[in-house]
Amino acid sequence: MRILITNDDGINAPGLAVLKGIADTLAGPDGEVWTVAPAFEQSGVGHCINYTKPTLITELEPRRYMVEGSPADCVLCALYDPMAEAKPDLILSGVNRGNNAAENTLYSGTIGACIEAALQGYPTIALSQFYGPDNRDLDDPFEAAVAHGADVCRRILAQPGAEAHGYSLFWNVNFPPVAAKDVRGIRAAHQGRRPGVNFHTVAQDAPNGRRFLWIGGGDQRVPPAPGTDAAVNLDGYISVTPMRADLTAADVLPSLDSLNT
User: For residue 145, what is the enclosing H or E element?
Assistant: First the structure.
């Protein structure tokens, strides 16, 4: 198997090294793992692409490239430049430092890479490690992802694929904020919404009198509805959420007959 890996935390992020180990296991001794990842951290950029300016790509070593762009840029660069004659069988994104569950999914560059991979027609999985008091001070806070990452990917890849209106399926995996030995299992889960949790701004006045705003996040311990992604993560389970890039509110369409002329 030939696997492309990327992330949004940057080429030197520890989570990318974790993902390389997962990918090496999945690819097997006769496989290949290609890394095409951002030169700098790109957290929160979503599905952004460098549409109005060129993107610099640098080969660091065979099958390992650094891109001055977003995670989605990395996927595009990989598919149409270094891997143009050696297309991947699978694209993995992560392992993100922090969860990409609930509303975080909408901002995530980790997810953005998978959206682009799915639009390009490739099977793809996003992997993220929830942080919390039970794992952030471990020698390796990614140990749940290390221990269970390859297995959960194999289980996902064994599931039947599906298409809807041309939008391919992709998968969002979040490892719970616990030690590897305390992971309770895997749960297929709907994307949740943490009630009352939103990004916000925090103001700071500089010594020169200029005003700056920092973007602040919300409380990641607030659980959404039972059985949804962040809720099962906080219960110690790995969440697996099937997704598509189709943003249509399908449940509302049947009530809109009065709009039709």
Answer: helix 143-157
The tokens for 86 are 């050696």
Query: How much of the chain, in percent, has pLDDT values that exceed 90?
Result: 92
Asked if the model's pLDDT at residue 214 lies above 70, the reply is yes
- Report whether 258 belongs to an annotated binding site: no
The better pLDDT of the pair 221, 141 is held by 141
Q: Tell whether domain 2-193+224-259 is in CATH 3.40.1210.10.
A: yes
Exposure class string for 47-68: b at 16+ Cβ within 10 A, else e: bebbeeeebebeeeeebbbbbb
Determine if the pTM surpasses 0.85: yes
Angle at 246 between CA 156 and CA 5, to 5 degrees: 45
Write the pLDDT tens digit of every residue in 75-118: 999 999 999 999 999 999 999 999 999 999 999 999 999 999 99
Q: Does 73 appear as a known binding residue?
A: no
Backbone angles phi, psi at 229, to 5 degrees: -55, -60
Mutual angle of helices 14-27 and 143-157, in 10-degree steps: 40
Does the annotation flag 8 for ligand binding? yes
9 known member of a binding site? yes
List, in order, residues 6 or more apart from 138 with CB less than 8 Å away: 179
Going across the sheet that includes 185-188, the strands are: 57-61, 64-67, 32-38, 2-6, 90-97, 124-129, 170-175, 237-243, 185-188
Domain ranges of the chain: 2-193+224-259
